[in-house]
Amino acid sequence: MLLISFIITMSVKTSLSVLVDTKAVLTCPPVLWPSVLVVTWEIVLRDKPPCFGAYRRDTNQTTRGNCTDKRITWASRPDENPALQVDPVAITHDGIYTCQIVTNDGNFYHEYHLQVLVPPEVTLVQTEKGTAVCKAAAGKPAAQISWTPEGDCVTEQDPYWGDGTVTVQSTCRWGGRHVLNVSCSVSHLAGNKSLSIELDKGVRTLGFPGSDLLIILCVKFSLLLVILVFVGFIHFQRTNDCRSRK
């Protein structure tokens, strides 16, 4: 009798986006636990050498190789649940996380492409008459900015090469148009935000034209002259009264 055995290999790939400073739990492929021989997590982070963590069921032992980040650990006891957790998630945790389960029936893989999201800090200011600047600072990935109403807009990106975040700045002008209120909408995978501003609010010229200022000065000088003449007249009258009594 000819016995033929089949080795099963199954692989699943998942793209996962996680907000920075939260907890991420990555699970392994669902298999019958009694058939499990070895569970291995391989982690490849950006600009770092690969590391791994493994669990052998027959000896109930775990091992780690080249993994120094203490925020990446087993979610619980690996003999009960071989899931991996990252807590808290940092920008540096972008990378590929692969769970491999070796069983009597074959090998099972679940690969995660983990992308860390960083919400940008959004600001909206007026820089000059009829011009506003909307900025989405230090977001990951880069945010998108749109305006209501539309104007003559220029958008620029300034990447922070060290941590992968990007600052997006959009400058919009509505010169020659009667526009009172504008709003900028920032679209981002971590959440959307919209800010509004009233153009030219509170912008006033505190002063007077040259001709008006001259008139005001002349009026003040004339009033001062009248007062001085009146005071001098009173003083002269009192002096004369004193002399006549003598």
Automatic annotation (TrEMBL):
The chain crosses the membrane at residues 213-236. InterPro entries: CD200R, CD80_C2-set, Ig-like_dom_sf, Ig-like_fold, Ig_sub, Ig_V-set. SMART domains: IG (SM00409). It is found in: Membrane. Its main location: membrane. It is a single-pass membrane protein. Pfam families: C2-set_2, V-set. Keywords: Disulfide bond, Glycoprotein, Membrane, Receptor, Signal, Transmembrane, Transmembrane helix. Residues 13-117 form the Immunoglobulin domain. It comes from Bos indicus. PANTHER family: CELL SURFACE GLYCOPROTEIN CD200 RECEPTOR 2, CELL SURFACE GLYCOPROTEIN OX2 RECEPTOR PRECURSOR. Residues 1-17 form the signal peptide. The keyword Lipid metabolism does not apply. This is Cell surface glycoprotein CD200 receptor 2 isoform X2.
